[in-house]
Amino acid sequence: MSPTTSSQSRPQSVNFDLSGRVAIVTGAARGMGKAVAEGLAACGAQVVIADLNGEQAEETAEEIRGTGAAAVAVKADHTDPAAVDAIMRTAEAHFGPIDILVNNAGILSLYSFVDMTMEQWDHVMNVNLRGPLLCMKAILPGMLERRRGSIVCIGSSFSSRSSVFNFPGGGPDYVVSKSAIQSLTRCVAQQGAPFGVRANAIGPGCVDTPMHAENQELLATMIPYIPLNRLQTSDDIAGTAVWLASDASSYVTGQTIHVNGGMIMVD
After folding, report:
1. Using CA atoms, how far apart are residues 254 and 101, in angstroms rounded to an integer?
2. Cβ(28)–Cβ(104) under 8 Å?
3. Distance between CA atoms of 26 and 121, rounded to whole angstroms?
C-alpha cells in the first residue's frame, strides 16, 4: 500500500502565535498572573492586566509594553459585576473583541475544617468562584457570537487528589472552591463547544509565588512529595496557559491539566 498524501495524514503545524488576539488576565499584577500575561504577550497577544492592586497592575503593563507588546492595566475587583463590566469595556476600547480569558485571581486558605469560620468560607468562595463566574458570564456571549475563544481557569491539583489533607494544600474552603471552578469550567466547555469556544482549567501544585511569602517553610516540606523534586515557578504555569490559549490546543476542551511535577501520582 502506497503512502497517502491526503491533507488528513499530514502533520498539522503547531501554532502558538497569538498575534492580533486580545487577552484578559485577572490577578495579573504579580505571581502566576503576571507570568501568564507576559507569556501571552510574548506570543503576540494584546493583554489586559486586571488586578485589585492598580499600581502593581500598571507596573506590570509598563514592563510588557517595554518589550514592544501591547498591554493596559485595569484596577478592578472581579467579584463586583460593575468592575467586571469595566474590565471588558477597557479591553474592547483599547484592543477590540476579547479572544482569551485567564481566570487567575484567587486567594489561599490554610484553615482546618474545625477552625474555619463561615465568614472565611464566604470570602474564599466569593474570590475563587464567584469572581471567575462573573468574568465568564460577561465574556462568553461575545465569544459564542464570534464562534471563537479560549477560557483558562486556575484550579488546583489539591482539589483532585484522593487524600486532600495528607499534607497542607489548602483549607476546605480553598479546595472546595477550586474543585467547583474546575467543574464550572467543564460546564462552560460543554456550552461553548458547538460554537468553537473552548474552556479548560490548570491544576497547579506547589507554586512559589508572592502569595506564599509567609509560607516558605511549609512549601519546603512539600518537596519530598513532588516527583520532580522542586517547587513550581510561575513560568511552569504560564507555558501551559499559553498552550491552552493558542491554536496548538485547538482540540482540547473541558479538561483540567495538572501541572504539578507529578504530585498527583503521590497519595
Report:
1. 15
2. yes
3. 21
Residue 17 included in any domain: no
| C-alpha torsion sign, points 206, 207, 210, 213 | positive
- Segment holding 62, helix H or strand E: helix 54-66
| C-alpha cell belonging to residue 259 | 501541572
211 within domain boundaries? yes
Q: Residue 123 has what DSSP assignment?
A: H
Q: For residue 115, tell me if it sits in a domain.
A: yes
| Tens-place pLDDT, residues 76-93 | 999 999 999 999 999 999
- Asked if 174 is an active-site residue, the reply is yes
Least confident range from 153-157, 166-170, 172-176, 201-205: namely: 166-170
Residue 214 binned pLDDT confidence (cut-offs 50, 70, 90): low
Alpha-carbon separation of residue 156 from 40, 123, 227 (angstroms): 21, 18, 17
Instruction: Band the pLDDT of 111: cuts 50, 70, 90.
Output: confident
Query: Of the ranges 24-33, 99-108, 121-130, 154-163, which one carries the lowest mean pLDDT score?
Result: 154-163
pLDDT at position 169 is: 58
Q: Answer whether residue 16 is part of any domain.
A: no
Report CA 126 to chain centroid distance, whole Å.
17
Catalytic residue among 111, 174, 225, 251: 174
Range of the domain at 105: 22-265
Number of domains, the chain: 1
Q: How far apart are CA 184 and CA 240, in angstroms?
A: 19
What's the CATH number where 174 sits? 3.40.50.720
Which grid coordinates belong to 67? 518589550
